[in-house]
Design brief:
With about 1100 residues, the protein is of the alpha+beta class. The chain is about 50% helix and about 15% strand. The strands form 9 sheets. It has a 5-stranded mixed beta sheet with strand order 1-3-32-31-30. Strands 2-9-8-7-6 form a 5-stranded antiparallel beta sheet, with no helix packed on it. A hairpin with a 5-residue loop joins strand 30 and strand 31. The longest helix is centred in the C-terminal third of the chain and has 191 residues, at about 695-885. The radius of gyration is 61 Å and the shape is elongated. It comes from Desmophyllum pertusum.
């Protein structure tokens, strides 16, 4: 463990060398902030209050009681001081979007955001009525939830503004508010144990988790936790029960009962793993006893724990990758733990046990691993290793003996083990490698011993407390690690409560300590491991209690005599008994003479064989060391040898043990005297009463009597001490009373002398005081006169100032009045100019209307004249067509008629274009007038404008009436002219009865039926004739008329065509008249409206 003190440091390294956390404690570094003091040697420790890891899980921020914010980067081995706020920190959290920003809640009810790189304040958010105790950030990093005792608020981290406040929480009270990971869901827990789930986008309640019934052991919730996938919710509070909810099914899954020592759950959090897909099952639970327990919520099993009575934890935070735990301790320090180091003994099922044997791997002395035996083991699991062809006959024979010993059926262990393991395969691995894989050793041991894991039975033993026999274990075994000592004391007490004999065995701590050190993070496995060893490998140990097991030592002595008589004779000659060379090895289970790796390797073989194999290992250890032992002659040398580590290779000892086991005859073989392996029963532990009960009971009674005598002696000694203290106190009080009386007499005399002196001084002071009063009275009068004069002067100054202010006000108002008058005159002149301009514009509009009216009259006259000319041309063409018969004159007439029609079409088009341009001008003028309408603000010229408008309207009405009368007259004249022309044409049609007439009419019809000439609107005057008569010509060019149509029919056709032509002309005139009448509305009329 390494320590770091950040006092007067703004940055630096966290550790000087790379830490290697031990599996017992898992502690990486301890961070403190201590200050030196001039009055004490130890100084004062500034307590850290809160911690929080960033998104990568490699750095965490911490805030202390003085408002110092630090960031510790474990990956870069650097720390830095971010800011000194001067206010204690109440909550801290990193932003998820901007990795370099951290949110800090302070005791002044404010929420601040700091940049960890630039060490600057990013934002200061206020608005809380009480201090914030938790911060939860949305997965997107855009929003953050803060909760206090009475209010929960939603903050926008893009604008650092408050977005929403949870209403109604002030009356009930809030326990915790948090975002579910990777979702838009908010979970709120109130003080009435109500759990609500909200949608973070709409902020509407999705559902409420029902309050658990009475049989579910309802608790007052104080802490919530959810795994990364957000499917579960774990709630805990003021009881030792944890409620596990399913947020998908909205129901309570099950209730987890914590140990009886837990009365209150302070904090909950899940350990994330990169390979679990968010379905974390390991829950960290911090209770009121300051112990952080890690529990499997599915198996309801405690994995390991940190903290304790001496190192209580106040709060903690776990990194997102599940590698570190930053715990704020009760003394104000921060302990950073390594989760992989703590959980390395929590074994898992192993992968396939096949391993490849490299050909170039060197052969070691310890590996009596023969090529033949290893090949047989690999053949069982499907492998085919290469064999070493050059072997000595002795080694081949030795390997054959070892292989035969492995296949013996009476080893006391079944071939099939729990957890899917196979005894034969495990033996093949042990035979080939000499030991089990270190990664899976604990799991293999648990499987070989078939530990039942009786949680309830073990809890009942632990709940009985510390046994009296081990209450002072720390005095006898001063272990440096408090946690290890506590686990050892708890395991020994549980064994003593299980069977009374274990409370009297003085070497039980030596026997149990190696297993306690291995399984200190899983105390249940540790207890059951020791109990299994006591039942199987410690058979007949306690039959001669309190003496050593003479029967077991006799077995060891018989085996030694059979295999090495010379060494046994040497022991006898040196007066060395089995209690000196065998019992020290047996009672410590070889832990004193072997290193950790050697001891683990030896017990791999012991657990895999019959319980008698332990005795063969002891004898083998003695035989292997025979050369050294034969040279020893003093008992002190023998004692030192069997109580200390020696240069003995454990592989040789194990091979010798197998040789002894195979070569020992049945009459001296310990296997005949010892029972085979019997695992612990499930549910309850078996009864252990194989010991002289009367001796144990007598020792218990004697120990109880001695304890009672000690208690009585201590009580008597305490009573005597109290009486002695009372007597000495009474004597001291009497002496103090007499000294006080003497002091009081002396003080009385002193006070009398002082009173006389004071009376004399009082007379002198009275005389001086009288003179002083007179002087003060005179000074008071002077001061009153000075104050009166100063007050009068001040009044005069105030009046002068007031007069000056009034003069300035009058001058300012006069200037303001002049400015307003000047501005009013300027506005009146501007308005007059505007009205004059409007008047001129209206006059120009009237003149423009007059000009447009005269222009329209001229245009109408021009159109009428052109129409008359066209009609005259039409009439002349008709007369020419009647009179002229030859083809040349007819062609000329046709060409002239086409030209006239084209000319008429051009004139009509120009008239339409002119009308459209006039309409556009009128619209534009109308828009201009509408714009000018909003500028008319002078009310004085309104009557004049209205009179002009009335005059213009009357004039327009008169012109309209005049034009309508003229139009009626023109229509009457046109009708009269039409009747006259019709009479004339009828007279002409009656005079022509010859064939030439039909030819002329046919030619005229052909002229009118030209389709390619675009003559509009006069093209409509000439409709197509579908019933024309055919004209043929002979070879000489003389026209030949058909005899089918008659003359009367041709005359009727001509009259019909002439009537259609006159109807079209009248329609054209009507349309022109309507166009002239459809003038735009009067803009002055709109102005009035």
């Amino acid at each position: 463990m390494q320590t770091l003190d950040v006092y007067k440091k703004e940055e630096g390294k966290i550790w000087q060398r790379k830490p290697s956390p031990s599996p017992e404690e898992g502690l990486i570094v301890c961070v403190s902030h201590s200050t030196s003091s001039a009055f004490s040697l130890q100084g004062r420790n500034i307590r850290f209050l809160r911690t929080a890891f960033n998104t990568t899980g490699e750095a965490f921020a911490a805030g202390d009681h003085q408002g110092n914010i630090f960031v510790f980067d474990l990956a870069k081995n650097r720390f830095s001081l971010i800011h000194k706020t001067g206010t204690p920190c109440t909550a801290i959290s990193f932003c998820l979007r901007r990795k370099n920003e951290v949110l800090v809640a302070l005791a002044d009810n404010s929420l601040r955001c700091y940049d960890t790189e630039s060490h600057e304040l990013v934002s200061w958010m206020r608005g809380n009525d009480s201090s914030i105790h938790s911060i939860s950030v949305h997965a997107s990093g855009r929003y953050a939830l803060t909760s206090s005792n009475s209010v929960a608020q939603l903050w926008d981290l893009d604008t650092f503004s408050r977005k929403r406040t949870l209403n109604g929480a002030q009356t009930v009270g809030i326990q915790q508010v948090l975002y579910l990971p990777l979702s838009n869901t908010i979970v709120t827990c109130f003080k009435d144990d109500s759990l609500f789930v909200w949608d973070s986008e709409t902020l509407k309640c999705k559902f409420q988790l029902p309050v658990p019934p009475e049989e579910a052991k309802q608790s007052h919730y104080r802490a919530l936790a959810t795994p990364r996938d957000g499917r579960l919710l774990v709630a805990g509070g003021r009881s030792r029960f944890l409620h596990v909810w399913s947020l998908e099914n909205k129901r309570l899954l099950h209730v987890i009962q914590l140990p009886a020592r837990v009365r209150l759950v302070r904090q909950l959090d899940f350990i994330s793993n990169s390979f679990d897909g968010g379905t974390s099952q390991t829950l960290a639970v911090l209770s009121q006893d300051g112990i952080l327990r890690f529990i499997d919520i599915h198996a309801c099993k405690q994995l390991f724990e940190i903290g304790g009575a001496d190192e209580m934890i106040n709060n903690f935070s776990i990194s997102s990758n599940g590698r570190y735990v930053a715990a704020v301790m009760d003394n104000g320090n921060i302990n950073v733990y390594s989760v992989p180091a703590l959980s390395q003994h929590f074994t898992k099922p192993p992968p396939p046990l096949v391993k490849t044997v490299w050909e170039e791997r060197p052969l070691s002395r310890q590996g009596g691993k023969s090529g033949q035996s290893l090949a047989s083991a690999m053949t069982k699991v499907g492998g085919t290793p290469k064999r070493n062809k050059t072997k000595s006959p002795a080694r081949s024979r030795q390997n054959a003996d070892v292989s035969a010993s492995w296949t013996s059926p009476d080893s006391g262990l079944e071939s099939e083990l729990p957890e899917g393991l196979n005894q034969a395969r495990l033996k093949s691995i042990l035979q080939g490698y000499g030991e089990y894989p270190a990664k899976y050793r604990m799991f293999i041991w648990r499987s070989l011993l078939k530990l039942p894991e009786n949680h309830a039975a073990y809890s009942s033993l632990v709940d009985k407390g510390t046994h009296n026999a081990f209450a002072r274990l720390h005095e006898e075994y001063p272990i440096k690690s408090r946690k290890l000592l506590r686990v050892l004391q708890r395991s020994l007490s549980a064994l003593a409560h299980w069977s009374a004999i274990f409370g009297e065995v003085d070497y039980l701590a030596l026997l149990s300590f190696p297993f306690v050190k291995l399984f200190q993070n899983n105390q249940l496995i540790c207890f059951e491991m020791i109990a299994t060893i006591l039942i199987n490998w410690c058979q007949h140990w306690f039959e001669f209690f309190p003496n050593p097991p003479v029967n077991i030592l006799g077995m060891v002595e018989n085996v030694l005599v059979h295999h090495d008589k010379r060494l046994m004779q040497h022991f006898v000659s040196c007066n060395v008994t089995s209690q000196m060379y065998a019992w020290p090895l047996i009672q410590t289970l070889l832990s004193e003479v072997l290193t950790k790796d050697e001891w683990l390797r030896a017990w791999d073989n012991i657990f895999s064989n019959h319980p008698s194999f332990l005795l063969f290992v002891v004898v083998a250890y003695v035989i292997v060391s025979r050369k050294v032992l034969l040279q020893c002659t003093r008992k002190e040398d023998f004692e030192y040898f069997f109580h200390n580590r020696n240069a003995v290779e454990v592989g040789t000892v194990i091979r010798e043990a197998y040789r002894l086991q195979d070569s020992t005859p049945a009459e001296v073989n310990p296997k005949r005297m010892l029972e085979p392996f019997i695992p612990l029963t499930r549910g309850q532990y078996p009864i252990f009463n194989k010991y002289p009960k009367f001796i144990v009971d007598y020792q218990v009674q004697e120990r109880e009597r001695i304890r009672q005598d000690e208690v009585e002696y201590l009580r008597q000694r305490q009573l005597a001490q109290e009486m002695k203290e009372v007597a000495s106190q009474r004597q001291q009080e009497e002496e103090a009373f007499y000294r006080q009386q003497e002091l009081m007499v002396d003080a009385e005399n002193q006070r009398r002398r002082m009173i006389g002196q004071e009376e004399q001084k009082l007379g002198d002071q009275r005389s001086r005081l009288q003179a002083m009063k007179r002087e003060i009275h005179l000074r008071e009068l002077q001061l009153l006169d000075a104050v009166r004069r100063r007050f009068m002067h001040h009044q005069q100054t105030l009046k002068e100032t007031e007069l000056q202010r009034l003069d300035d006000e009058i001058e300012r108002k006069a200037l303001l009045r002049e400015q307003e008058t000047r501005h009013a005159i300027e506005d009146a002149e501007i308005k007059g100019l505007e009205l004059q301009a409007q008047k001129e514009m209206l006059q120009q509009d009237l003149i423009r209307d007059d000009l447009q009216g005269s222009f329209k009259q001229r245009a109408e006259q021009t159109i009428q004249r052109k129409q008359q000319e066209l009609e005259g041309q039409l009439f002349r063409r008709t007369m020419d067509a009647v009179q002229e018969v030859d083809i040349d004159s007819q062609r000329i007439s046709q060409e002239e008629l086409a030209k006239a029609q084209q000319q008429h079409a051009c004139v009509s088009m120009e008239g339409e274009v002119e009308l459209r341009s006039r309409m556009d001008d009128l619209h534009r003028e109308l828009n201009d007038v509408k714009v000018a309408q909003h500028v008319l603000e002078n009310k004085e010229r309104e009557t004049e404008i209205q009179s002009l408008v009335h005059e213009l309207r009357n004039k327009e009405n008169d012109e309209v009436a005049k034009k309508e009368s003229e139009l009626r007259q023109q229509k009457a004249l046109a009708a009269e002219e039409e009747r006259r022309r019709m009479n004339l044409l009828n007279a002409l049609s009656r005079d022509h009865t010859t064939t030439d007439d039909s030819e002329s009419f046919s030619r005229l019809r052909d002229i009118r039926q030209v389709p390619d000439e675009p003559r509009r609107p006069l093209s409509a005057i000439q409709p197509s004739n579908t019933e024309s008569s055919s004209i043929t010509t002979d070879s000489s060019g003389t026209p030949i008329t058909s005899h089918e149509p008659s003359l009367e029919r041709q005359r009727g056709t001509f009259e019909k065509r002439e009537l259609e032509l006159m109807a079209e002309v009248r329609d054209l005139r009507k349309r022109l008249a309507l166009r002239r009448q459809q003038r735009p509305p009067d803009y002055m009329g709109n102005t009035q409206q």
